[in-house]
Design goal:
By secondary structure, chain A is mainly beta. Chain A contains two helices and 42 strands. Mean pLDDT of chain A is 87; it is low at 471-481. Chain B has helices at 12-42, 44-79, 84-90, 94-107, 112-130, 154-165, 186-199, 222-239, 262-272, 296-312, 329-335, 345-356, 380-395, 400-410, 416-443, 446-450, 459-489, 499-507, 512-533; strands at 142-149, 174-181, 205-211, 247-251, 257-258, 279-286, 325-328, 362-371. The model of chain B has no long low-confidence stretch (mean pLDDT 88). Classes of the chains: A mainly beta (481), B alpha/beta (549).
Amino acid sequence: MSTLRKAIFLIFVAIYLGVTPLTILYALGYIFNPVQQTLLQTGLVSLNSDPPRANITIDGTLLKDKTPLVLRNLRPGVHDIQISLPGRHPWHKQVDVKPERAIRFEEILLFPLSLEPEILGNFPVSRIASTPGGKYLLIQGGDRTSWLYLFDSEGKKFEPVFSRSRNHKAEVNEIYLSPTGDRAMILLQKKGKIHPLFVRLTDPLQMSDLTDFLEEPFRDLRWSLNHKDSLFYLKENTLMRLDLDRKILYPALTKKVRGYTPHERGLFVLNETGQFLRLNEKGKIQDVLLDDPSKANLIFGADPKESYSIFFLPNPFVFSALNDALAIFLSEKGRLLSNKLPYFLDERVEGVAVAVSHSRLAYRKGEELWMVDFEQEGEKVFFERGPTPKKIYKGKNGLSHLVWFYHDRYLLFLEGDRLMVQDFEGEGKPVELLKVSSRTPEAYFDPRRGFLYFTHPEGDRLARVELFEEPGFFPRFKESS
Amino acid sequence: MIFSYTRRNLSPGSWKLERVFEFLPATLSWGLLFSLFSLCLFRPVVGVVAVIVFDLYWLFRLIYFTLFLVLSYGLLEVERSVKWPDRLKDLLDLEHAIVRTRKRIHDLKNHFKERYLEKGHLTTLERVKRESLRFPHPKELFHLVIIPFFHEGITVLEPNLQALASAHYPLEQMVVVLGVEERAGRNARELAGRLKEKYGKRFFHFEICIHPEGLPEEAAVKGANATHAAKWAKQFFEDRRVPMEKVVVSCFDSDTVVSPEYFACLSYNYLIHPKRTRTSFQPIPVYHNNLWDAPSFAQVLETGSSFMQLIEVTNPETLVTFSSHSMSFKALVEIGYWPVDLVSDDSAIFWKAFLFYDGDYRVQPLYVTLSMDVAVGENFWETCQSIYCQKRRWAWGIENFPIFVRGLLANPKIPLGLKIKQALRLLEVNVSWATWTPIMLILSWTPTLIAPHEFESSVAHFNAPRVAGVVFNLAMASLVISIILSLLLLPKRSKPVPLFQKLVFALQWLLLPVIATLFGAVPALDAQTRLALGRYMEFFVAPKGRKAI
């Protein structure tokens, strides 16, 4: 027994010593190159598409396997990859495979060549309002309040918002939906005066008139992210907070505000004295993040009256460090700035679309569409430059309604009456998905359910198409053969 | 060499050395887990390489173990049919026995199993003859059975004595000593009295030894009780002028149920062993007494423990005594009995003997089973608690490491290579015990699950889980073999076991990876950490529950 055991032990040791290095080499992507008689470190491309089971062509060779697929042991160099499915726009990319690196294309949406819209109403629509977290859409059929409907996307029902209200002859001036989508502040214009109306989007609707609390002039209304019924706004340049539920107007939070944004971690305020502050919701200073007028002048411009819109980008690498937060500033004059390199991003910017789950940003500048990806590693140079804005499209016919969707992989926008989609990773021109009403071009994408709502060219009616089915939490991958 | 096998009353220098070696196992185990985790987190590619090295090491080890498990199981099955009393008789007339055995081998041409057994027996007989081995007459051999107990009930103790009384061995050559703890109170003494009344007259002698509470230098451990009983036995045999080498002592846990062949098998193996007084004899413990009354995770765990012992016995060079076992009484007396202040008396006795005989001490496996109890509580959680505490007590065997290493350092007669081999072996077993399941089950997937974002764009990020998956699947394949063997090893019930229950028993093995972590690695880490922190354990009597017979 002892001899047998020793012999088997030695055999196992020998196998282990042989298998382990080979397994490690495999894990690191090494293959044997029979031509050069050397080891070659390969790269890898991970592909997944929606819908799945799409054809994969690599360097002109159609593979037997379909998506999702991990292409292993790819030799370093440029590879031409195409994903296609009958009846769908193909996806194409020149991929530069590098040794030991994995490149992921796991959110490839293959758009249908033709979409069959579902018409949802029989009246013309001039505005579609909603928020990603919301169950309802607010649909405005005309300027009058009597044409404002609550649309339940699950039940596909329209409910008039003001059917029994005495406001039914007022005009809708502006709609502010809360991030959770279950509250709205509707500004009604009646006899030249603004009447703010707080609406809880429940069944039945609950409304309260706030005309006596929210006196003009006010601007830049923002919902609190921590208290559902709290609303912030600027009265001239003073930041105010209003509790809509208890109808309490708090004392001024801070003055001389150039811009502000509510955040889960408090209120972030840029003021005229060149400070950037974090306040709590009672206005108490928590952090002074910038307190240098000369630096503020350099970044935000010398004009202290120039107001800014402020956005925070999600930073997937950072969970708690405030100093790592990524803030974007857009001035009323169109100057686009960031709190990280390169600080100054662009000018004459007209509209910004902030990604929800990635540190990336799209903006329009005249007829051009630009994008900045803060997640991409900048070039290693002595004087760091930070990420560089990249022009991704030049249109002809007026761009509007920018929105990121499908894991922030695609950018949806309107070019005139054409609804376009631009792949963040793919190459070439954007795909025209469909045409919307040229009279009232409107579009809204519901990220939770994958529906795209728009105004149909025929009769400006509300319509929708399903762009993708709700993706599974864990995509499954097969291995390349 | 005489070495005080204790951690008490040490000189300042020895105490420092003891503490250093007490720190070492926990430091290595935690260090290994933390360093691998840190590598996976901060240097994920290096982490992947390290995890692959460990995963494959454990995979091969598992396959290697499974191979020997099958082999050992085969040997156990084959040796079940040996008629040990006949073999004992053969020792009385070697010449004729050899001739008879040769003839039997010739007659058993087409009976592989029987032929294999007879060939083994013939080899032994020829060796005994060739070496002119002198051994006591089997009729002169005494078996001293010491059963220390605390507050275990009659349902646990009586089957033990019943099994002894049913042994296929002359009971007039057996002396049974019930070691009763004084602190267990009157009930325990009364129970011992009742048992003596019922079984006492069947053996050569039956004694109840009351172990007084609070003897100097003693801790509340089983070894102290057993030692007290053994000291009484020494006087008993001296009074009857029985030489110590003619006495084989078996120290059994209270729940031990020996197979009828045990003493005949032990006697044969003792007599034919050239160094019988420098050898312990280790049977295979199986936990079958109350297996069907225990919850599923406990069944899996204890069957796994039996398997580990089955694997261990295939390698006598590294075998260490465990649980109930037997040894020469002469050796026990010479080395100064069991340690009276250590919890893990079963393994400590081996290390103590190893040091005393300057490395010339071994364990001889016996392919015969002893059945024991699965620790069970009143309910599921109590059972979990009991099993956890029992496993931690087993893992507390690491308390031997610092003492044993000090003993090795103090002993100039043991060859350096043997010292290093034994110390490393003891350390490796315990560190592996605490780390292998966390590495295979958790750390294998760590680089993929929690590594930094940059790692997601590396080939290793994609390939590591694939390697871990293959390793895991192969490990599970070896588990299937264990499942089959566990079904074959199942104890027979008076009522036939329904197929469904057998199926459930088989399927619950799939829980093994989780169970092995919770009731294997965690108690081992707990025990090692306690040792490092100087929070020494006292003996924990695992509650053993059996339905009344």
